[in-house]
Every structure is written in structure tokens, then in C-alpha cells.
Amino acid sequence: MSGNLPGKVLLTGGAPGGGVESYARALACGFNSLGVEAEVIAPSIIHRRLGEVRDPRVLKFLSTTAAFAVPFAKRAFVIAHGFPCVRNQGWLRTVLILASLKLANSVRGAQLLVVSGYSALHLESIFNLRVDGVVRNPLHPSFYEAPEHSLRTAITFVGRLHRSKNVEQLLPAMERVLDQHPELSAWVIGDGPERNCLEKRFAVNPRIRFWGALPREEVRGKLAQSRVFLSGNPTEPFGIVFLEALSQGCTVVMPASGGGLEIAPDEVGRSIQLFDYPMNEKVIQAAIERALAVVPRPVDLNAYSPVEVAKKYLRLDARFNESGEYAMPARMAEARS
Asked: Rounded to an integer, what distance in angstroms lies between the CA atom of residue 167 and that of residue 161?
């Protein structure tokens, strides 16, 4: 709706401490700073808010788990935080996610948006979906506070302990680095189905600590004490935690693939060190060693501030008409015919 700010923004979040929830909370901060009321709710209760779902004065951000509300929606963004993946999500969930994205393409009250060009490429080229825009994730305002000067003594992983994160391949490489650097420790922050198995295998090493899930401020504090942040997911759609780590002065080590490559491409080879896939202990260890040799420097992340990201969404919001409907551009319609 050109020149017409929404009366309210309603966002569906995700699991506590997860990427979708972090995204929703940070974006809500951005809209609040622009003078627009923003509320984050669990996707499981979206059916209780159908009045607002239908109200064109309310701009909705629906995650794929809330996309069943799309047929009733006016002025809604369906946000694809990734793309369907059978290996990580199983066949049933993959089919349900794909169905929700197809649904978003079929109604006039919604636009399908993604968080990275990497995700857009997969949705368009593999699943033949129409992607209406790419807006990269915001970084929560608390991470724009300068890290306190502290001794950096950790190599750190932050994320859900799920097999897609490949933590079982990261930890042996971390152990090899610890053997060469007695001043360092390895920290694993997060929870998930793999935690018990990983702890049984690796927590016998007193220099490897599993912290479990931590509040945002404690995560920020741990990153400020870390020299290296390590990731092992080669299909990471974006990776808010990459932003968080860079903001706190960590050197990021990650696979040479995924949406994280879009965050700060000029920093590849400096604040961002890559390793090839398929990964193994030696290539991961080599990347960590390169990262330890880097002299940290500030990385400009202003483009990811919640206010700047909220403004990008408002520019896409201008496509909706007064009734909260989106008329697909003719060039897109021609491309789909």
C-alpha cells in the first residue's frame, strides 16, 4: 500500500531460541522503532487471530508453519526461511512445507518472500515457485552493542543440535585444534536431539563444554569471549548466528556454500574462512587454524539493522492495494505461463 504504513504488524515466531523466533523478535524491534506496533505470536495460535489475518490494515509475516492461514489472508508475507529438504525434514514435513509455499503462490493476499538469494534459487529452479522478493534477516539490536574487551579463549558453535548442523564432524576437528592450542577451549551452545549422543562422546574432554540453550544476552557474552565461530551446515539458508558472531568480533568458519556467503562477501578470506564440502576433520581444522591467524577487525553490519530491514519490507508492502491484495507483475506472470 503505497505511502500507507500498516496499523499493526503481526509476526509468527518459532521455537524459543531458534532462528525463526530470533528473526521475528528482531524485526518487531525494527517496526517498533519506526512507530508501528508489532506483535510476535506462536504460529500455533494464528487461527485465533483470523480477524487480523483478514484485516488489510494489519501487515502479517507468516512462517511456513502458519501458512494454513494464507487462504484467509490479506496483506500477508509468507516468509520462507529455507527450502524443503528431505534429508533434514523427512518426506512428510517436506511435502507439507512445499504445499504451504505453493499455497502462498496461489492467493492474491500474499507474497512469498525469502531470506537469501541462495534460498530463492532453490525454490525457483528446483520447485518452480514464484519468489516475490528477497530480504535478508535482521540482527537483533542488542548485538550492535560493542563487545566488552575480554580474553578470547574459545572456539564456539551456536545452534540447534540437529544432524543438519554436522556438529559430530566439527567436534573432532575442534579437538585436533585444542591439542595444538592449550590456551583454547571448545564451547557448544544449543540444544536438540543430538545433544545426549554428542555429550557422551565428547564431554569426556574437560576442555569441551556443552552449555545448552542460553538466553540471547548470554550468547552474546559467550561470542564476545570467542576467537572463532564454527558452522557445519552446507545448506544453511542464511544464518542469523553468522551475523551475531561477526558483530561480536569472531572470525567465522563455515562451509563454502549456503546463504551465509551473502552476508559479507568482501570478508571471505579474512573475517570469514571457508572449507570445502564434503567436509572432514583435516579441512575443518585447516580452516580453524587460518581463522586463528586472522587479526579481528570490525565488520559493517548496518544493512542488517532491524530498522533498515523493516524499511525493505515496507517497500514490498507498497505492492499491496487498499484491499490487501497483491497483483503479480506482468513480467512475472509471463515468466510463469
From this structure: 7
Q: C-alpha grid cell for residue 253?
A: 568458519
CA-angle at 144, arms to 189 and 239, nearest 5°? 45
Give the whole-angstrom CA distance, residue 111 versus residue 106. 10
One-letter amino acid for residue 158 of the chain: V
Element (H, E) at 239: none
Nearest to 255 by CA among 194, 165, 126: 165
pLDDT digits (tens, 9 = 90+) for 37-89: 999 999 999 999 999 999 999 999 999 989 889 999 999 999 999 898 888 88
pLDDT tens, position by position, 164-178? 999 999 999 999 999
Q: Residue with C-alpha cell 497483491?
A: 326
Torsion sign across C-alpha atoms 99, 84, 260, 14: positive
Sign of CA dihedral 17, 20, 25, 27: positive
Cβ burial of 51 (10 Å; 0-12, 13-18, 19+) is exposed
**Paired residues of 253 in beta bridges:** 230, 273
| CATH of range 8-138+305-336; options 3.40.1280.10, 3.40.50.170, 3.40.50.2000, 3.30.1490.10 | 3.40.50.2000
What CATH number was assigned to the domain covering residues 143-292?
A: 3.40.50.2000
Grid-cell match 527450502, residue found: 83
